Structures are given as structure tokens and as C-alpha cells.
Records
---
Amino acid sequence: MARRSMRNQIVEAALEQFHAHGYNAAGVKTITDAAGVPKGSFYNHFHSKEALAVEALRYYGEGRLDDLAGGETEPLARLRAHFEALRDETVRLDYTRGCLIGNFGAEIADHSEVIRENVRQRFEGWADAIAATLEEAQRAGAVRADLDPPTVARFLLNTWEGTLVRARVDRSSDAFDAFFTTAFGPLLTGPAAV
């Protein structure tokens, strides 16, 4: 089995530290200690903690949208399964972590233009993937035809991020229940607006 590169060890440790403790609480030394590498090696791979954060966001986002891509599963079921998997991850982690993208947006977007822009791009890519799935569901007749997929995708994503915050605050799945009941009930499949 191939050994992970030191760079990948640092990125994986950073992702874990950023997700568990936040950007500001995760220092370079904490990250390199968690990676099991000397602190000096950090600067052989990254010019700053900010650059590492951007890489951690990329790594975090890799593969998270694959479940929205086409396939044999009906598009609306794929979309629901996508959010269910994210919910299940939050519950498994005992409501102690939300979405790293949203967490970074709330914690440091006002203080780092580089990270703010990267967070914005991650949200846009995610919303685009949701919109494409909604368009496919509309063509299949599973989603109301009067909805604008890009607008609804952004609304769903914004609602999801708020749902995560509420679930973490309440340490309860009640917010998830409300999200799924409304999004996959009246919002997407209810009667068309008059």
C-alpha cells in the first residue's frame, strides 16, 4: 500500500482540525502535530495557513457532489439522499460539526478575501449541482414545473446551512425533520403556485 504524501497528511489533519475546532483555533503546530510531521515541513508545502485552508476546502468538497450526478436513481430521490447523507454525518458526529464551507463562511469570510472567495465558489458549485438535479427532476415530472431550478437550488442550500446551525444549537434532529418535510413536500412537489 502506498504511503500518503506529507502534503496529504497535512491537508487531512488540517481538514479534521478546521472541521472540529474552527479555523482560528487550529494552529499550524496543532495541525502538524495531528499530521505527525515536523512543524517546519508545513512551509515546504504551504506558504500560509490561509493557503492550507483553501486546500482543505477543496479536499472537503471533493466527491461530496458525486451523489447528485446522474445515474440509475431518480433525480429527486438522489437529491434527498444527498441531504440525508449530510444529515447522517452530522448526527453521527453528535451535532458537533456543521458544513466546513458554511463554518468558514461564518467564521472568517470577513477577514480573508481569499477564503471568502473560495467559500463563495464552493457554494456556487454546490448550488449549480443541485439546480442541475432539480432540472432533471422537472423533466421527469417529479418537481413542480413552475419553479426556477437555480433560484430554488440556492434557497435549498441556504436553508440547509441554517438547518445545520439550528440542529447543532438544539443538538436535535428537529431542524432536519422540518427541512425534509418542507423541501421534499410542499416546496418541490406541492401544487403549482397560482
---
Amino acid sequence: MTTDAPTGAAQHPSDRIDTSVAHPARRYNYWLGGKDNFQADRDSGDAMAAAFPTIRTAALENRRFLQRAVAHLAREAGIRQFLDIGTGIPTANNTHEVAQAIAPDARVVYVDNDPIVLAHARALLTSSTEGATAYIDADLREPEKILHHPDLRRTLDLGQPVALMLVAILHFVPDSDDPYAVVRRLLAELPPGSYLAASHATYDLLPPPVAEEARAANRSGTPPGMINLRGRDGFAGFFDGLDLVPPGVVSVAEWRAETEPQPRPAADEVSMYGAVGRKP
């Protein structure tokens, strides 16, 4: 959760960087082969890879799902506005790049709570001339701060459809923080014709001993930054009241992946669901 500066003191984003604690965005950057990570992120990433050896494949496939979902929304659904929460450290083919390659006037607001992401985003996530991008320093669990942020209001018209992108972020929100209520609040602010695109790690496809260990961690409350795995029904619950876009809830490696290199990774190599739903 984003920490406010003490009253009367200006806090620079770099003051919030704690290199001794793993952060999901930096750990994900490590799995993708990036250099914007610290030893704590690498140690945490390696520990998770020891339990789930194909986790780098999962990270790559999740990224490809994001790109396909954005392309579908921009090209097939005609969406021109995107709210991407849990941006992560910018890499190739970010949301605005995919969307604006199809629709140069697309407008994107990025949200993340890692100050390293903030620095990279402001430097690298530059819009086309016709479109616009903005970056908000906030936590998914602060929907009011996100929805009422002046930069969001300047960039997006909430009277027109918006694609809410929650890709590989919901599994960092434990049940105690009620992620379903957070998603409902965000969607409530968006008009009919808006979309939710999300992906989520699952224990459904893990080897039984690993799956049980994950369930036990969920029951006991996972440490901050660790993954709260959910089953298919738990993930599908985020789409309650929405019309799922075919093929519905599937492995991120299989969602509209006809143009991807074949054969596709097996579902148990990725162990992550993805889906896109439309608000009626």
C-alpha cells in the first residue's frame, strides 16, 4: 500500500524504495529477463521458481495475454480508453503501444505503487501525438484515489467505455482486503460497454503437494508481495455480472492465441487463468 509522507514533509518516490524487500513488479521484471531488480527480488523469484520451475514461462505467457487482450479490445471491441492497474516496469509492447498501433488516438492511464515503476513509466510510457498517457502512483486497494485522481479525469472520459486491465495483480490482494469489492467499485464507475481484462495465478493446475502448500499459505495469510492463488471459480467471481468474451476463462496461453507460436505451453506450465468480460 502506498505510504504517505509525514505531514509537512515532501517525500520523493525514491525514498520509498526498500531494496531489502522483494516487490512483485521487480520480481516479475527478473523473470522476464530485465535488469531493474535487486537481490531480494532475485532471491524471492528463485525461491518461487524452485517450487514452480516454469514460472518464467508463466510470466512470458501472461505478458502475451495482455498484448492480445489489448489488441482485441482496440481492434474488435473499438475501445479507445484503458485503465491499466499494476503496470509493472515497462518492457516491450506496453498497453499504450499495442493500443495506439491500432488506434493512434487511444488514451491510457497506468497505475502502480512501486517508485521504480514510477520513474520508468514517466520516462518511457510516452504517447502518440493523437492519444495520451498518464501515470498514477497508487495501490489497487485505493480505488477512490485512482478513480478521482485529477490525472485520470484529465486523460479518460468516464462517460465513454473503458477497458480495466487487471493483469497479474489480483493474486497479490488477499481475501482480507476484499479484492472482489475493489473490482466492483472500479467497474461501477465505468459505463456500459466497458471491459474487464484480468489474469490470475491458480492452484488448480499445480502438482497436489504444491497446490496444498499454496492453499495453506492462503489460509494463514501470505506475506505482503506473495501470491494468493485462487481456483477457477474464485477467479471467475471477478467477472460476476459481466458477459465473458469467448473463449471465457481459460489458460492465458490459450486465450485467443491462434496466431502465437505453436504448440502452446501446457496449462500446467503456466498455471494462470485469463479472461475478458464486457459490462452490459
---
Amino acid sequence: MTQEFRIRKLANKFSAQYRPSEKVGVVALDIVERYRKNHGGIWVGGVVELTDKGVFFSANALNRMLHSGSIKAQVPINKIRSVRREFGWLTGIVVIEHDGGEFRFRCFGAKNVAKCYSAYLASL
């Protein structure tokens, strides 16, 4: 039986798959597309939850309105391989490596989030 664990943070998730809808306007769409091409993806605001079941992201209302398709992501805990923190301006970046690649998000307190979730995974 696994221990119950939960961290919930306002965060921005990085993704190459998310695409803004045409609702954002031509100028903004062009700027976002240039950013996506130059950086390999875009940051989307919402909520990240790290739990004893895995890691989950859901976009906030504004991003759900301004993007096409589903703006959700999840990685089951049994697919997670490691957790680390990377430097980021203003907010740190948490990188969760899993069987399918990386789940990256930025939040305040990233160092502590990465440390706590990594320690929890090591205790299983």
C-alpha cells in the first residue's frame, strides 16, 4: 500500500503539443508560434498536482479558452523515473523524467517541490 502524498501548485507546463486557437488574434498567434518554433514548445498556465498516483496538469480557464484541444497531461507514478530541479528566472523548473519523455513545469518553490517528490518516490 502506498502512502498518501499530494502537492498542488499553480504552475506553467511546457509542451510542444499545445497550440493556441485562432481566438488569440493574428499578431499574438504569430508571436506564440515564433516562440514555440524557437524554444520547442510553449508554457501554459494552470495547476500541477503531484500525488501518490502520479503527476497531473490541467490548464486554467483562460488557457482552456485560448488553446485548441485538451490542455491536460498526466504521468502515472509507475512511469516516473526521476525528478530534478533546473534553474529558471523568477520561478524554478521541475523536470520529471518518465518512460515517455519529460514533464516540465515552472512554479514558485520548485526546489522544494522537486526535493519532496523525489524523496517520496525514493521511499516507495
